[in-house]
Amino acid sequence: MKLAEALAERAEATRRVEQLRARVVSSARYQEGETPAEDATQLLAEAGEVLDTLEMLIRRINRTNATVVLGPDGGTLTDALARRDVLRLRHSVVTAAADAAAGTGDRGYGRQLRSELMMLAALPVAELRARADALARDIREVDVRIQRANWEVDLLD
């Protein structure tokens, strides 16, 4: 099984657990004289089985991510995932700073009269936008490397 397939199975198992959780909660109590829509005990057991499978998948995915060397720099797939996550956060911060400095979203706070004080940018908006563009490019490059590895690498036991 390829790593990408395991990731898809993990996502499906996570969705299944959430669905089962909701069904257990809705069937856990019922009114006297009524019959519950579903057997909560059976649903809970099924959720336990799916969670056991999910745990096994997560262990194997994590083991694979920590072992696979990605590229000539010697970093692992786990390193690349951490890099991508931090790049996304950096991009979010820089973009928010540029938006705030540019006054994006300041509806209703513009000057009505020339005698009112002007709002000035405390940060260089153009530079921030350029940094955000560079970060977005870096995110795409790292993401492509990760996705390529996901489809090339076999899942470890």
Describe this structure in words.
The protein is mainly alpha-helical and 157 residues long. It is built from 4 helices and no strands. It has 2 domains: 67 residues; 89 residues. The longest helix is centred in the middle third of the chain and has 28 residues. The termini are close together.
Instruction: Summarize the main sheet.
Output: none
Compute the number of strand runs: 0
**Helix run count:** 4
Uncertain residue ranges = none
Report helical residue fraction: 55-70%
SSE string: HHHH
Q: What's this model, at a glance?
A:
The chain is mostly helical and 157 residues long. It contains four helices and no strands. It has two domains: 1-67; 69-157.
Topology:
Layout: H1 3-27, H2 40-67, H3 77-102, H4 125-152
Give me some keywords for this one.
157 residues; 2 domains; 4 helices; 68% helix
